[in-house]
Amino acid sequence: MTGYGVDRIKNTIPHRGEILLVDRVTEVVPGETLAAVKAVSGNEPCYAGLGPEAAPADYAYPVSLVIESWAQSAVLLSVWENPNPDVLAGKVELAGSINEVTVGARAYPGDVLEHRVRLVKSAGETAVLAGESYADGREVLRVGTFVVALRDVGELRPVAERTVLNV
Amino acid sequence: MSAASPLGDLELIRTGALGAATAFDARADDPVLDGHYPGFPVLPGVFLIEAADRTVRQWARTHAPAPDGGDVELAAMERCRFHRPVFPGDRVLSDVSVVDSAAGLLFKAVVATNRGKVADMRLRYRVGPAHDQEESTS
């Protein structure tokens, strides 16, 4: 295997279980770029509700999950050298905004999503990233800007009823 | 709803010529929340995009059906801003309205819980067949 597997991924970001949507980091230049892959499989929970009447197009991988998978790759790059695998021991990654997103070809079970991420800017605990996703050489997603911030969990608990900063 | 989705059923609250609103509950027993994140469950922000997108597609089935009989397709998300997290037990309301229908369909969406606005976005749809359609298997 080349690159970094789920062991390194789980030691870097806090996502677990069915919502961990990155399988391997294939290339990383810390502070600059990262490439990662995620294999789409027909046994994923998003397909569980489809019955025998489902059309082929119904098996298009949800765009929201393509975005999530790309965004997890982006978070991997932003914390690669300063891992944050446990939100209770560290901080929680929260998406602030995601703009200028274009959706291209759709991915289907059996496809491998190839994510490319570039760090555009990093200031304190906020990072701005951009990039694309491909499946079988076709562009699936293009992200103009993704802003992600690390926040203290205590700052966010709903019981506190405090205003969360808009990022 | 027939397309694959990470979200369960949406309840249709309102629909009309200019838009629609749906609601769903962020359930504490949703397995997604076990992993997002262990010890601090918050709904992934992309689920709000999913809810808004499905609300638009559901609206379009009756108000702007695609020529091929399929659903309209999300072509671009011009902006999406997340204002605050969604926690287990929250009821999430997605309100989408048509901004422009001249070139494709442009929607604005506001997603809120009882604590206030959690996200807003602008979503653009292609109404004709997808540009990769001819190469895809069907």
From TrEMBL, chain A:
Under the heading InterPro entries, the entry gives: FabA_FabZ (IPR013114), HotDog_dom_sf (IPR029069)
Please give the superkingdom of this protein's source. Answer: Bacteria
Q: Pfam families under this entry?
A: FabA (PF07977)
GO MF entries: lyase activity
The EC designation for this entry is 4.2.1.-
Q: What class of enzyme is it?
A: lyase
Q: Per the record's keyword annotation, is Lyase included, yes or no?
A: yes
Q: Which UniProt keywords apply?
A: Lyase
Its signal peptide is none
Please report which protein family the annotation says this sequence is part of. Answer: Belongs to the thioester dehydratase family. FabZ subfamily.
The protein here is known as 3-hydroxyacyl-ACP dehydratase FabZ family protein
TrEMBL record, chain B:
Record carries keyword Lyase: yes
Q: Which domain of life is it from?
A: Bacteria
GO terms assigned for molecular function: lyase activity
Q: Protein name, please?
A: 3-hydroxyacyl-ACP dehydratase FabZ family protein
The protein's matches in Pfam families, at most eight in alphabetical order, are given as: ApeI-like
- Judged by the first EC level, this protein's enzyme class is lyase
The UniProt record lists the EC number as 4.2.1.-
Task: Show where the ApeI dehydratase-like domain sits.
Answer: 23-111
Q: Does the keyword Magnesium apply?
A: no
Which parts of the chain span the membrane according to its record?
none
Q: Give the record's keywords alphabetically.
A: Lyase
Stored InterPro entries: ApeI-like, HotDog_dom_sf
